[in-house]
Design a protein that fits this description.
Radius of gyration: 35 Å
Strand content: under 5%
Distance between the termini: 97 Å
Number of helices: 32
Length: 579
């Protein structure tokens, strides 16, 4: 019992890491103390029969798995009175009724009852914040959403400061996630939640799901935690990964969704994850095992989220995942592509192209088969996804079959009037890369849709790509469309890059429209483009300069007084010196 007093004095240091194992280690000393009291009773001490009573009480406490009840016995916490037990029972009944709420009207009634009864406690508050977003998942009006958000803000202001220190780790996570889903925008509340969770994170009392959800909530609210908080989070997350590698974690305890939430939160907060810097090598193997364990329940959204974050890190931190890992990841995903949502299919390929790690040809063959169904049947691609898909597919060295291209062009004709200028430019460019010339009816619809957008929407880069793509396809471009494109490019001449200028003129002079090229106004505009671009030729390679000269000669617009000629002579002398 003397040791027990020492433990009681050291309670402040042990409370953060208290667990039933600590008290089990004290059991031999307690047994020896009990035996000594039984063998040699002293004056003023209880009899041997009575000395067994506290010892038996400790044993009953040790058999209980609840840490709070053990602390009550060991540290002499005050016993609950009848009124306290009644209040706890009322709180449990309120918790049950709150969980059963299916509408804002029901939850609002229960919240009023809780306030009248005065039975609010940390567990009940966490349950309320957890249930608030769930009742808005169905059909809910903007007014209901605003009322729920206001009620959450009022609860946080009234009760959260008083009860936050008494919450466990999961309760803090529930509150943070609930506030984040409801759009709470007060950063001081999330900073307090993060500060209160430090002791639970350091003690290892939070699961991998709790850690990822808490980081997700902070990122959703736009609150960047302190560096020390992130360090504690990385340590615990790495321990969970090591336990997962050893097989000591339960299935699903470190899921693919947890890794996706952590990755997304790091990108949102612009935080450098430790696996990007190389200090956490277990992330990628854990990711592959998570995909493999998911099996038929694999979520395309989680895979797309992780690959998208990798693409962002590749552009921001020059991150380059191993090609072997990416190949294994794609091989695990290939049998499940048909169950992925359209936006996930697009994000996966788009991210791979950004990372300069295009998939293999067999994988792309399976991808095209799944994509063909997504172009026809619901759920189909959105217009923004359609544009991103075209950008990615045109940069992958794998041409689909002619049957697939024919069906693709037929489906895209219906989408033309809904696409933005970027998607229209990527569409005609992708067709030129695939070498597939659409029908005259499709081209007529394309010219009709893009003509009003050439003047106001198209940028120099999109104009150059569109003109060059039409040249590759050998399409007959209407005069009205050419005039609008040339006029739009001249208006944006100050913003044009040298490469775009060369590509645009090269595509214009081979537009297979001799009548339009013979016009004096056309020649003057082309010469104006060439003269303006003379100052940019120092940034061009000689090949581009040669293309420009050939284009101007084809159009018969290069005069002796053109500023291009001095540049031409300089490049000629440079070529002779190199020879």
């Amino acid at each position: 019992w003397g040791e027990l007093k020492c433990v009681r004095h050291a309670r402040g240091q042990c409370k953060a890491t208290a667990s039933p194992s600590i008290y089990r280690r004290a059991l031999p000393s307690l047994c020896r103390a009990a035996v000594q009291n039984e063998d040699s009773p002293q004056a003023g001490h209880p009899s041997p029969q009575a000395s067994h009573a506290p010892y038996d009480r400790v044993l009953r406490s040790l058999s209980n798995k609840s840490t709070s009840s053990i602390e009550d016995e060991l540290f002499g916490c005050p016993q609950t009175t009848t009124a306290d037990r009644g209040q706890t029972a009322d709180a449990k009944r309120c918790s049950t009724r709150v969980k059963a709420c299916r509408s804002w009207y029901e939850l609002r009634t229960e919240l009023a009852a809780v306030e009248r009864a005065g039975v609010m406690n940390p567990k009940l508050l966490a349950i309320i914040f957890s249930c608030m977003p769930k009742i808005l998942q169905g059909r809910s009006s903007e007014q209901e959403r605003a009322e729920v958000a206001a009620a959450a803000a009022a609860l946080a202001e009234t009760h959260l400061d008083q009860l936050m220190d008494c919450m466990d780790g999961q309760g803090l996570v529930n509150v943070a996630v609930g506030l984040a889903k409801l759009g709470h925008t007060q950063p001081q509340v999330f900073h307090k939640l993060a500060s209160s969770s430090v002791q639970h994170i350091r003690a290892g009392h939070m699961s991998a799901q709790g850690l990822s959800n808490l980081l997700w909530a902070l990122a959703t609210a736009g609150v960047r935690p302190a560096g020390s908080w992130l360090s504690e989070l990385w340590v615990q997350l790495e321990e969970h990964m090591q336990e997962e590698q050893l097989g000591s974690l339960q299935p699903g305890e470190l899921s693919l969704q947890d890794l996706a939430n952590v990755s997304w939160a790091c990108c949102r907060l612009e935080v450098l994850p430790p696996w990007v810097s190389g200090s956490m090598p277990g992330f990628l193997p854990t990711l592959l095992r998570g995909v493999e364990r998911a099996g038929s329940n694999l979520s395309g959204g989680d895979v797309a989220t992780i690959l998208t974050t990798m693409a962002i890190w590749s552009r921001t931190f020059s991150y380059k995942p191993s090609e072997t890992m990416l190949a294994k990841l794609l091989a695990l995903c290939q049998p499940h592509l048909a169950q992925f949502l359209p936006q996930d299919l697009v994000s996966i390929v788009h991210s791979l192209v950004v990372m300069n790690a295009p998939p293999s040809r067999p994988w792309m063959s399976s991808y095209y088969l799944v994509l063909r169904d997504r172009l026809i049947f619901d759920p189909t691609l959105s217009y923004s996804d359609f544009q991103r898909l075209l950008w990615a597919l045109s940069r992958i060295d794998h041409v689909p079959s002619q049957a697939w291209l024919k069906q693709f062009v037929e489906v895209s004709r219906v989408k033309l009037r809904h696409l933005r200028f970027r998607a229209l430019s990527e569409l005609i460019w992708a067709l030129s890369c695939w070498g597939y010339t659409p029908s005259s009816e499709w081209l007529h619809e394309y010219y009709r849709v893009t003509l009003p957008k050439l003047k106001d929407d198209y940028k120099c880069h999109h104009l150059a790509n569109s003109v060059l793509a039409l040249k590759k396809l050998g399409a007959q471009v209407p005069t009205e469309w050419l005039d609008a494109a040339l006029s739009s490019f001249c208006d944006q001449l100050n913003e044009a890059k040298a490469h775009d200028l060369v590509v645009f003129i090269d595509g214009m002079v081979d537009c297979d429209n001799a009548e339009w090229m013979a016009r004096g106004s056309t020649g003057k505009r082309l010469l104006m483009l060439a003269n303006h671009g003379a100052s940019k030729f120092d940034l061009c390679v000689p090949v581009q300069f040669a293309k420009l000269l050939v284009a101007l000669a084809t159009a018969s617009v290069l005069s002796k007084s053109s500023p291009v000629r001095p540049k031409q002579e300089r490049h000629t002398r440079g070529s002779e010196s190199l020879n």
